[in-house]
Amino acid sequence: MSEPASISQGIAARYATAVFEIAKESKAVSKLEKGLDEIQTALESSEEFNALITSPVVSRAEQGQAIAAISKKMGLPPVLANTLSLMAENRRLFVLPQLVESLRALIAEDKGEVTAEVVSAKALTKTQTEKLAKTLKARVGKDVIINATVDQTLVGGLVVKVGSKMIDTSIRSKLNSLQNAMKEVG
Fold first, then answer.
1. Backbone dihedral region of 141: left (phi > 0), alpha (psi from -120 to 50 degrees) or beta?
2. What is the pLDDT of residue 1?
3. What average pLDDT does range 17-23 have in this prediction?
4. 140-156 pLDDT, tens per residue?
5. Which residue from 28, 98, 145, 166 has the fewest beta carbons nearer than 10 Å?
6. Please, which residues bridge with residue 157 across strands?
7. Which H or E run contains 147?
8. To which H or E segment does residue 167 belong?
9. Share of residues in the chain with pLDDT > 70 (%)
10. What single string gives the DSSP state of each residue in 53-105?
């Protein structure tokens, strides 16, 4: 991990821990989760929002006013809206994507869930996703949420990442292994 990325992760983790603890004490974790969905949607779909949180040209006051208006329009829970305002005041909005990721991890851990990043050569059917989640639950002992993406360069098979473990059953990796073995022989 590069130094700026690890600094961002550290900042985001501290904010996330504080926000999560406050939300848990006030029994507002489900509201927090809905607010995170709203922020995630904005991060993924709005170039203006991303420019607002990352631009050094936008002043603290402008960021604060914009974040307050956005929070109100999105209907974010007070703990999240106040945290975003504090982050704007401290010029820390650039860590918002990492904050969302850290908060989602804390919420999932609290629920006894784990997220599995699954990459497949073609889109998984609902049945395949359910069967994979059931199989992974048996292995890790927690409910598994599947985050599936498609990468056609895999040719076939799956790449599954759960926490720090990775299972690569893709044909691409098998072909690469075979190619390396043939290089060693020849």
1. left
2. 46
3. 94
4. 888 888 888 998 888 88
5. 166
6. none
7. strand 143-150
8. strand 165-168
9. 97
10. HH-SSS-HHHHHHHHHHHHHHHT--HHHHHHHHHHHHTT-GGGHHHHHHHHHH
Residue 112 gets which letter from DSSP? T
Residue-level pLDDT at 147: 87
In Å, how far are 25, 34, 68, 113 from 74, measured between CA atoms?
A: 23, 10, 10, 26
Q: Which has the closest alpha carbon to 160: 134, 137, 136?
A: 136
The contacts found for 43-49 with CB under 8 angstroms, 24 or more apart, are 43/96, 43/97, 43/100
Q: Among candidates 91, 87, 103, which has minimal Cα distance to 38?
A: 103
To which H or E segment does residue 128 belong?
helix 126-140
Kindly tell me the number of DSSP H helices and DSSP E strands found in the chain: 8, 4
